[in-house]
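Report of the visiting student (M.T.), summer placement. My assignment was to run the structure pipeline on a short list of targets and document each run. The first record concerns DUF4367 domain-containing protein.
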Amino acid sequence: MKKCAMVLLFITCLLMVHTPVHAQVDQPKPLEDFYAEYGYKSLDEAVKEFEQHTEMHVSLPKKLPSLAFTHVVAKVNRLGGSENVELNVEYLNEHVSENHYNVDIRPAEQKLFIHEKRIIEQVRLKTGGKGFFVKVPGFHVFIFETEQWQYRLSMDQRVSDQFFPDQLVEIANSIDSK
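After the run finished, the structure tokens were exported:
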């Protein structure tokens, strides 16, 4: 009887040692799912929604910063009422958080006021219009207007060694004004 109990105890111990334990490890949410919780969707969906709301065609820059991005998400922000809208487009890299570039577009009649003391530099665009580099902590920001839209391009300052603010002017000049 004693031998039988010892053998059972030994077998039980072996089973416990060799039985794999499957621990539940929380996997981080995919970046798209995280942004979807805050109303972001595909670029095409957001642009279509924005154009339907404003009843105008919007042109996005044809050129992007010379950085690697893994995702592009967008949403329509309704600011202070249903008539005041802005298209927010975010280019992200899930592996390099500082590779973060934004394009925000709003109708020109709802443009943001730029206080003079925030303007760092004024630049002439190829269309003849003016653009402004604006002081915003942590970002290079360039704001300019077309006939219908005000654009705000912003890039994380942590990539200053790979990205120069003048590239924002090149990006602005890549917008088709038709």
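The two ends are 94 Å apart (CA to CA). Confidence is low (pLDDT under 50) at residues 5-10. I thank the supervising group for their guidance throughout the placement.
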